[in-house]
Amino acid sequence: MKTYYITTPIYYANGEPHAGHAYTTIAADALARYHRVNGDDVFYLTGVDEHGANIDKTAESKGYSPQEYCDMLAPIFTNLWKRLNISNDIFLRTTSDLHKRGIHKFLTALYESGDVYKGHYEGYYCRPCERFFPDKEIPEDKTCPDHKIPLELVKEENYFFRLSKYQDKLLKLYSDQPDFVYPDSRRNELLNVLESGLEDISISRSSVSWGITLPFDPEHIAYVWIDALPNYITALGYDIDDQKFHSYWPANVHMMAKEITRFHAIIWPAMLMAIGLPLPKQIVAHGWLTKDGEALSKTRGIFIDMDGDIETYGVDAFRYYLLREFSFGNDGDYRPARLHARYNADLANDLGNLLNRVLGLLNKNFDAIPSPTTPGEFDDEIKTLTEETITSLDEHIKAFAFDSALESIWVLIRRVNRYVQQTEVWTLTKPETKPRMGTILYNCLEALRIISVLLSPFIPETSEKIQLQIGLKNFDSDTNWGNLQEGILVSKGEPIFPRVDLKKEEKTETMKPKQAKPKSKKKISENISFSDFQKLDLRIGIIISAEPVEGADRLLKLQVDIGDETRQVVAGIAEHYTSDTLIGQQVVIVVNLEPATIRNVESQGMILAASGESVVLVTPEAEVPLGTEVR
RNA sequence: GCCGGUGUAGCUCAGUGGUAGAGCACACGACUCAUAAUCGUGCUGUCCGGAGUUCAACUCUCCGCACCGGCACCA
Fold this sequence. Notes:
CATH architecture of the domain at 335-470: Orthogonal Bundle
Helix content: 40-55%
Largest sheet: 6 strands, parallel
CATH topology of the domain at 335-470: Isoleucyl-tRNA Synthetase, Domain 1
Distance between the termini: 74 Å
Oligomer: single chain
Number of helices: 20
């Protein structure tokens, strides 16, 4: 029996899961189920990554120990997966013994490979990022670009992994195995990274406490990614080297969202090379979800209402919509209106109604499933198309084209609807035509049975409902035509996808104004003295010219009149303001900031702006004389 | 600025060197077994713009525009 090992990332447990996590997990679930129904021995892994300074900090801010916090959060993930019908075989927590033991073995092996060395690291460090900035990346103001807080000059003794050594081997991997990274767009990006050179990476932290200690130096904690990536082997029992590990590793697919491909497609394979383990076969990245065209954002309250949509349309409709409407690999725009349209058109009208009408006809005219005694026109077409669908489905699945996969099944569903129409079964009630009627109904049911098998990876609950209504007590996953037995008593057939009235929906939607209050998540910094504050010289100025900076997308070169003089300031606001709207604006400018050169342009100060998801200039509430002090 | 991608019917997208397709939506018709479902027919397009190669380009080449990623940049 072929094995198939598929993984999602272990999601970082410093917040609740969102639709993006659900998307990854549902896609991986579809693959896992597809391979299971085709007879493979499948192992499907998902889980949570529970270590690192961020979790420690989040836990502390909520008044819990990190372990307590993780223990609270893990069930939120598992409950969601249960609700979404995720068929994972394991839910790995990095705080589990299984993982900790595996990591010890992994780190020991890595250490013994000779590619780990101890280095003194002196450099600029961002605590929330848990990372050092390489020399060429240090911002001139020594502020973390993501967290907007000052970098700390930290001198740490760290262990490093000789990633640089693996550049050529990785390049060879990419050329020998062109499908190692899917889709090609991601592969190209990573090739760029590889070709521009790799630096060794530090794999430990001595300043962080919440994590796994290095087996060869208890003073150090494994860096979160070094702790997390090997979960793919620790989950299989790598530490005891058992049969399970050897039968499932290497993984067939590591599935993830596009932002973490670098860790999976560069660092992870390099580490595996170092310890002499086989590499995963494919790194598969999907795009991000937007909602009605806007990026998801906690702070702006833009989120996908999974609970609401699942409540209205059902889990399978949610799964179906995500897999059917988005082309996997690209970003996808989640639009409740489209979900609604898909639900009614595809699920209720095409599939649900087909099952219902066939069962209705059968119940009205027969006591049980009749035998196909009387072949006729179109029968072969239905049978042939069913078989062709099985083949094309397989091709699409291999290419991660869930949308085409589902579309190909729907071609068959529509064909069966047409079959009912063409044969006008409902007219064949006379004794002499009844055997033909029975045959047609048998064919319809058999097609529906096979369709339910083909659909089971995507919408498992529906598949079961279909088979139950057909009268099968145990799920029959045989896709050979004719496997359906005659004489089975069918059920009455309640609609499996009752139509949803849009007007009702609009009402309920307006009834729950669930707007999150926009707020910044950055914590208040440490206190400074009043004299510290007084050191700042803030003045009112007016922008008299603004032009783009050569070679930079975000920068504008501004001339600001502050009364006595004109200052040239470079500001990273080009994405939010055009020159026209800026000229004539009064702004607050820091005039005693030491000058800096950015992109060969001198900047003699800094314009204040609220900078969160959007950037908004700070301006005086009423016009004031230029050069006025701000305090 | 560099690298890559995308731009086709109202919407979501497929597609080929010979003058364009699917689903949804829309209109009309058929049917009445079925969840106002199904089936048929029809409709709309400067296939982003421009130049070039070719007997012929939406499909190839070049230039440009727009949007989206990645990298650089964010005092």
